[in-house]
Amino acid sequence: MRRRSTHYEFQRRGIRFLKENAGFRRYVLREIDRRGPLLSRDLEDHSKGEPRNHRWYGNRRVGIMLGLLHRRGEIAIVGRQGGERLWDLAERWYPETERVAPAKAERLLEEKRGRAQGVRLERDRWIGYPGIDARPVPDRAVLLSPFDRLVYDRDRAEALWDFRYRLEMFVPKAKREFGYYVLPLLVGDAVVGRAEPVFDAKTRALRVLGAWGDTSRLDEALDGLAAWLGAASIER
């Protein structure tokens, strides 16, 4: 499914990159097959096109190729060495499995999303997934990861709680509405606010750079975060 999907611009861009760099792709797969597992720096950059100094990967495009091959299921992350990913052929690590048509894969993925998220928006109506747990949500206050499934789908979060959330770490500082790494605040069954905590590993202090929305129970959420981090103090 990922090999054929062109729904998003980044997918179309990836397909163009692979077509323009067919020889580079063959080189990467051949080297990993012969010498793998390998680190990104073990591979030479044989990509085509004008070099450019990207803020993430500089002038090297090895990381782009590895990421695309990973998304397509041709290679796998099989470990780490000094914090860097080790890459190997997926067939050496992934078990044999049934191959399904892209249309069926899309349906299976939507079913899993519905089961994981509990509800889906269909023709302006919220539809509950069959058999979901309808027990009351515990009354607690927690700060969520930006990648928590409650807010991972930004449009869904906005429709459910009228809470518009965007991770602004990739937004230029002058254009940020809130902060670099702001976390949503969940109280009970609603997302009511947000805060930007920063943990100083040297002083073991958890500092709050900013808070927005209904933050009446933010202290409770910070206590939980501080305990998990092993913070010695909280500074607001």
Descriptive notes:
The chain has 236 residues and is α+β, with helices and mostly antiparallel strands. It has six helices and nine strands. A five-stranded mixed sheet has the order 5-6-7-8-9, with helices on one face. Strand 8 (205-213), helix 6 (218-229) and strand 9 form a beta-alpha-beta unit. The longest helix is centred in the middle third of the chain and has 16 residues, at 102-117. It is globular.
Q: What is the compact description of this entry?
A:
The chain is of the alpha+beta class and 236 residues long.
Low-confidence spans: none
Shape: globular
Q: Return the average pLDDT rounded to an integer.
A: 88
Number of helices: 6
Give the beta-strand count: 9
> Secondary-structure element order, as H and E?
HHHEEHEEEHEEEHE
Radius of gyration from the CA trace?
Answer: 22 Å
Distance between the termini: 47 Å
Widest sheet, order of strands: 5-6-7-8-9
**Beta-strand residue fraction:** 15-25%
* Percent of residues in helices: 25-40%
Structural class per helix/strand content? alpha+beta
- Major sheet: 5 strands, mixed
Topology:
Elements: H1 9-20, H2 22-35, H3 62-71, E1 75-81, E2 84-89, H4 102-117, E3 119-122, E4 125-128, E5 141-143, H5 154-161, E6 183-187, E7 190-200, E8 205-213, H6 218-229, E9 233-235
Summarize this structure as a short list of keywords or feature phrases.
31% helix; alpha+beta; five-stranded mixed β-sheet
